[in-house]
Each structure stands twice: as C-alpha cells, then as structure tokens.
C-alpha cells in the first residue's frame, strides 16, 4: 500500500538589508515571511523602511534548493489593476535589476502594473511545487547568487528598491539569506521505545515487596 505524503507545514522568516555599496543609500529594510502548507509556499515581502518614506519595491529575487522539481507562480498581490489588466509577474532572476549583475534563480517584478508595493502595501504571491512538498532545506540550503555585484559569497535573496533618500531619486539593493533549519531534538525510534518498555516491565517483575517483621 502506498504511504501518504508527510505533511509539511512551517514558516520561514528573514530580513533583507542594504545597500551594501558605500555610494548607495543605507537603511533599506524588507521583511520576508514564507508560510508553507505542503506543496504551496505563500510569500509576503514587506517593505519596512521608514527612513525612506517614498520607497517602492521594483523587484524581488530568490533562490531555492529544489533539485529536479520546479515551481509555478500565482496569486500576485497587489491585485490586478482593473483598468490595465496588468499585474505583478514572475521575471528572470538573471542580472537582477539594481544588483550590479547578480544572478538568481527566480524573480518577481512590477512589470507594467501601476500598483505600487511600498511601506504601506506588501507584495504577496504563491509558489506551487511541481512534485512533493516544500521542506526547510529547500530554503536554508539554497544556492547563493552568482555573477558578481553582491559581495562574496553572494546571497539567497535580493530586492531592488527605488525612490530612496530625501529626494526620492536614489535606488538600492538589499540582500539576505534564509535562516538555518531548526534544530531537531529527534523522536525515539519504535525499537528504542519497545526496548525501554521491556526494561521497565522487567523492573516491575523483579520488584519485591518488602517484608514486615511479625509482631
């Protein structure tokens, strides 16, 4: 009989910061939350840069350790603009905008959507795995960006943010890695539990009630 797939429900959080270049603005902050429910990962990219009140997200990039599997993008938010029918969309991760030539596996960009992602509006989207369920290792052990731009050894995530500074004319790039997988304390194997129960039973059988002296 075929075994049912093991449920995989967990949350991954990380914070991107930048810019890593001296000539670009600092204090760029984005909080990323990924809520995984088996083969679907729901992403929230929250621009959290109060020192840049006019900041807006142009594009977001990331890597995953998927092996032979692939992902499909859906449910982009902000919602599709009714007037233009344009939406945020998946884009190439190669030569990530604003990074200085860094290459990632995946990207999400504004495209021609008039809907801004800023300090008050988050970017949201889903990724669906082609086979199996997402695991912590797919995030934690993702490869680092290649192609240069980002200081060695690279990063697993990046974001191009525009309208920075007091004039709102600067742009920058923030980076981060996914956190390591949580430490597992392990669950005893069935054989260990049986052995432990056996030892406990032997202890019970070997127990002798103390004799009290007769008066």
Report strand order across the widest sheet: 5-8-3-2-1-10-9-4-7-6
Return the CATH class.
Mainly Beta
Shape: globular
CATH-assigned fold name: Immunoglobulin-like
CATH architecture label name: Sandwich
Number of beta strands: 10
Mean pLDDT: 85
Outline:
This protein is mainly β. Helix content is 10%, strand content 33%.
Characteristic terms for this protein:
215 residues, mainly beta, Immunoglobulin-like, 10% helix, 33% strand, globular, disordered C terminus
Structure explained in plain terms:
With 215 residues, the chain is mainly β. It has one domain: Immunoglobulin-like (Sandwich). Helices cover 10% and strands 33% of the residues. It is built from two helices and ten strands. Strands 5-8-3-2-1-10-9-4-7-6 form a ten-stranded antiparallel β-sheet, with no helix packed on it. 30% of the residues are buried.
Question: Can you lay out the helices and strands and say which pair or pack?
Answer:
Layout: E1 9-18, E2 28-37, E3 40-47, E4 56-62, E5 71-77, E6 89-91, E7 106-109, E8 123-129, H1 136-140, E9 157-164, E10 170-176, H2 190-206
Antiparallel strand pairs: 1-2, 1-10, 2-3, 3-8, 4-7, 4-9, 5-8, 6-7, 9-10
